[in-house]
Amino acid sequence: MSLPQRRGDYGKIDMSNMSYCKFHNTLIDLIDCRNTIEEMVAGDEDEVFVLSHDEARAAEALAEQCFDILTLLCEHAGVDLDQHQEARVLMRSVIDSLPRR
Predict the structure, then answer these.
(1) What are phi and psi of 52, to 5 degrees?
(2) What is the pTM assigned to this prediction?
(3) Which of 42, 74, 85, 93 could form a disulfide with 79 if both were Cys (CB 3.0 to 4.6 A apart)?
(4) In the prediction, which pLDDT does 71 show?
(5) One digit per residue, pLDDT tens: the chain, 101 residues?
(6) Do the Cβ atoms of 35 and 22 come closer than 8 Å?
(7) Separation between Cα atoms, residue 88 and residue 63, nearest integer Å
(8) φ, ψ of residue 51 in degrees (nearest 5)
């Protein structure tokens, strides 16, 4: 098994992820990411949860990929997503507002 390239490199990383469990494993990780973001925005005021620069950049890239997946699915289903393009700008501004180290 190959080791991943350096952290913060969001190009293709040579890691094994068998095709029969790719979506299952990714779903588990995505749910964990969603829960972390929920803790960041809705957690205790006494707890300050901040992202490192690399993690904030990864969160932004993850949100972009999720938006791209939604776009692909909408295009396939014949749903006009043009009216929602400002959602991508909103998404970027929200990600930029997350606390960072």
Answers:
(1) -70, 165
(2) 0.65
(3) 74
(4) 85
(5) 344 444 444 555 555 667 778 899 999 999 999 988 888 778 776 666 778 889 888 988 998 898 889 888 888 988 877 766 677 777 777 777 776 66
(6) no
(7) 9
(8) -100, 145
Structure tokens at 91: 């998404």
Helices (H), 1-101: 22-42, 53-77, 86-97
**Nearest residue to 59 via CA among 4, 10, 11:** 10
Q: In angstroms, what CA-CA distances link 78 with 3, 81, 86, 97?
A: 40, 9, 19, 33
| Token pair recorded at residue 44 | 């205790």
Residue found by looking up tokens 């993690």 in the block:
55
**Kindly report the CA angle at 88 between 31 and 41, in degrees rounded to 5?**
45
